[in-house]
């Protein structure tokens, strides 16, 4: 199963703009001197003796049983730390509880409504164990799947850790997704238990989550239990109704309280979690990360790339529904014993100042955010952050989508300018759960470019046949070797896993278009396949198209991404309606509501156009390229294959 890959007209234009050159931002001497790794030395070791390199990184973790072989690669399958046994939570919690960090703040949490809670490592240990014991009592065993449909709350983090404690595999579904997306994931994972919150917040509004769960599990008899975390338990709030026998209240079900739970030591290859992402077909793709390799990777890069230190407050504005939330809200920073700050809600609600007010109040040192958030802050009047004391904020990492030079320079000046700190870009994906390319604090930053391969990474830019492309020319980004923090398979669908290694022979194909400059800096310009990136979230055109086709009025649909000044890309849908359907504004609203309910707000098209027909090849395939070029007023290129 290989994919269609191409470099789009817009990407080509971006390459040309990049090559015109942007001046570099020099490394900050004081930050470079504090950098905890020597890039050249690490990179050389990782090339000359990769096993020794990764074994050294693995020794930073606690293992119940040592590994006998560091890595085995029988293409396309790779395994790491073979024979080794460990538990992720022992590495994230227990070892700190048994040290001076015991009563250190592990988590400082702020709700969208302003509620604040703090958890020491010791408290997190107890709450995790209580919930792990509860899951066990409900019959959850090692290897069983548990779905989470929760906003970013301490309970969500506790649920993830509780699963890992007993070797259950968690799969977090972003709480902004709609009913059909949730149901498809519960079904594919064949989850025994679903844990949800009664509601989340979206810009001050309470959004009920329970109705979507009820609807999703209605005819899934293999779901034995639904546990509902009541946020509305405060005085005056209406109590949640528990409708069926399989529904439980989060607090009641945790009786009797047992605060110790033996960790289950799992094989390094045991899946820690499944995280669903969009591919080029309408079916969600369950990316599987294995405990050993994943933990080694995210632990190493928390230190090496994010440069988080013992005394730091670290804040990522992501959500646990995304891979960044897994690796750099939960497992990475906790594994190094850092203090994680987490806040529920949008970074501009109730106002863009909320972010800077929190940075000032907590004295945040290292922050991780998205280019969309940076562009949004910038659009709200550039100088707002200057009103706050951001002098402790020394590092601002950005990932998820291309960071345009203008946003990079603005963030460098207004967000880390007070500390003379640095903005660093980094590239990775749901499939590779930590930085792969990035700018270390010892490098100069080149706005528009991500940076260089992290130690252990063999990245290249190639053509469709896998031949290396000369520097400064666009091609496909590939990795020539697996990484420990790379997906080990696709849940229930090995063929889709194998496809990552089939598009370009002998390489992992990331699906992105990139260039490399003469000094080894890469720029990643966007997807080469039918996947959109809206505000850093990956959305398959096929997901939205098949959702539209489920609407009773729709006969045909095609979806394209158009450039958006804030979100990077926005979704435009073209729809052909069935005969006899009235195509008025009411229909457009109904189509948008339908997508929002099924897939969630992030996948809802910002523009829907009703057409009499769609451009197709003679074999009947819709030519999205032609629609996109038309929408952008560009030359669509060769259309000789069109039927009409
Ligand atoms: P996701 O799996 O949803 O995190 O999306 C991963 C995709 O986001 C990548 O394949 C890229 O297309 C894009 N991406 C992530 N980080 C960057 C970055 N720093 N620069 C450019 N694109 C990025």
Summarize it.
This protein has 644 residues and is an alpha/beta fold.
Q: How much of the polypeptide forms β-strand, as a percent range?
A: 25-35%
Topology, number of strands: 32
Identify the overall geometry: globular
Q: Give the cofactors and ligands.
A: adenosine monophosphate
Determine the fraction of residues in helical runs and give it as a percent range.
Answer: 25-40%
What is the CA-atom radius of gyration, in angstroms? Answer: 24 Å
Query: Mean pLDDT, as a whole number?
Result: 93
Strand order of the largest sheet: 5-4-17-16-18-19-20-21-22
Give the uncertain stretches in residue-range form.
none
Count of DSSP-assigned helices: 18
Please tell me about this protein's structure.
This protein has 644 residues and is of the alpha/beta class. Helix content is 29%, strand content 25%. The strands form 9 sheets. The protein has a 9-stranded mixed β-sheet. It has a 5-stranded parallel β-sheet with strand order 7-6-8-11-12, sandwiched between helices.
């Amino acid at each position: 199963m290989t994919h269609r890959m191409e470099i789009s007209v817009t990407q080509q234009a971006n390459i040309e703009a990049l090559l015109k050159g942007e001046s570099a931002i020099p490394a900050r001497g004081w930050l470079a001197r504090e950098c905890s790794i020597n890039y050249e030395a690490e990179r050389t070791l990782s090339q000359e003796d990769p096993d020794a390199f990764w074994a050294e990184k693995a020794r930073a973790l606690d293992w119940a049983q040592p590994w006998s072989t560091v890595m085995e690669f029988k293409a396309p399958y790779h395994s790491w730390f073979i024979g080794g046994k460990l538990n992720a939570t022992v590495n994230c919690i227990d070892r700190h509880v048994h040290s001076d960090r015991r009563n250190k703040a592990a988590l400082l949490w702020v709700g969208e409504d302003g509620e604040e809670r703090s958890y020491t490592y010791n408290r997190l240990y107890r709450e995790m164990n209580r919930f792990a014991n509860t899951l066990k009592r409900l019959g959850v065993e090692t290897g069983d799947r548990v779905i989470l449909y929760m906003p970013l709350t301490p309970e969500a983090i506790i649920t993830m850790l509780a699963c890992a404690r007993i070797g259950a595999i968690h799969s977090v579904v972003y709480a902004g997704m709609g009913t059909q997306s949730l149901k498809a994931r519960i079904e594919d994972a064949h989850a025994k238990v679903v844990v949800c919150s009664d509601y989340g917040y979206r810009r001050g509004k309470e959004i009920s989550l329970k109705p979507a769960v009820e609807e999703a599990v209605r005819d899934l008899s293999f779901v034995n239990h639904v546990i509902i975390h009541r946020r509305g338990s405060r005085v005056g709030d209406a109590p949640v109704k528990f409708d069926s026998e399989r529904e439980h209240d989060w607090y009641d079900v945790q009786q009797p309280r047992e605060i110790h739970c033996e960790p289950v030591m799992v094989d390094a290859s045991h899946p820690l979690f499944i995280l669903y992402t969009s591919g080029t077909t309408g079916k969600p793709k369950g990316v599987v990360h294995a405990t050993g390799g994943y933990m080694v990777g995210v632990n190493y890069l928390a230190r090496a790339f994010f440069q988080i230190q013992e005394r730091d407050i670290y804040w990522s504005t992501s959500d646990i529904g995304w891979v960044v939330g897994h690796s750099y809200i939960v497992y990475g920073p906790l594994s190094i014993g850092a203090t994680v700050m987490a806040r529920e809600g949008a970074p501009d609600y109730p106002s863009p100042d909320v972010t800077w007010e929190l940075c000032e109040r907590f004295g945040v040192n290292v922050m991780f955010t998205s280019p969309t958030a940076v562009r949004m802050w910038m659009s709200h009047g550039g100088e707002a952050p200057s009103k706050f004391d951001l002098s402790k904020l020394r590092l601002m990492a950005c990932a998820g989508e291309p960071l345009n030079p203008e946003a990079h320079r603005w963030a460098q000046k207004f967000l880390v300018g007070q500390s003379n700190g640095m903005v660093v870009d980094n590239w990775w994906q749901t499939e590779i759960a930590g930085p792969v390319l990035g700018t270390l604090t010892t490098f100069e930053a080149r706005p528009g470019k991500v940076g260089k391969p992290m130690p252990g990474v063999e990245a290249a830019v190639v053509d469709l046949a896998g031949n290396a492309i000369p520097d400064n020319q666009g091609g496909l980004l590939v990795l020539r070797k697996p990484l420990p923090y790379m997906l080990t398979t696709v849940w229930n669908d090995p063929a889709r896993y194998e496809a990552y290694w089939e598009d370009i022979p002998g390489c992992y194909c990331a699906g992105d278009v990139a260039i490399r400059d003469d000094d080894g800096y890469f720029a990643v310009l966007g997807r080469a396949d039918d996947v959109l990136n809206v505000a850093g979230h990956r959305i398959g055109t096929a997901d939205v198209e098949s959702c539209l086709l489920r609407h009773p009025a729709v006969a045909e649909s095609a979806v394209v991404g158009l450039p958006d000044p804030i979100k990077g890309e926005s979704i435009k849908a073209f729809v052909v309606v069935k005969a006899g359907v009235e195509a008025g504004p009411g229909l457009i609203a109904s189509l948008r509501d339908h997508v929002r309910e099924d897939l969630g707000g992030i996948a809802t098209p910002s523009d829907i156009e009703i057409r009499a027909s769609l451009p197709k090849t003679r074999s009947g395939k819709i030519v999205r390229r032609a629609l996109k070029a038309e929408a952008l007023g560009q030359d669509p290129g060769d259309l000789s294959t069109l039927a009409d």
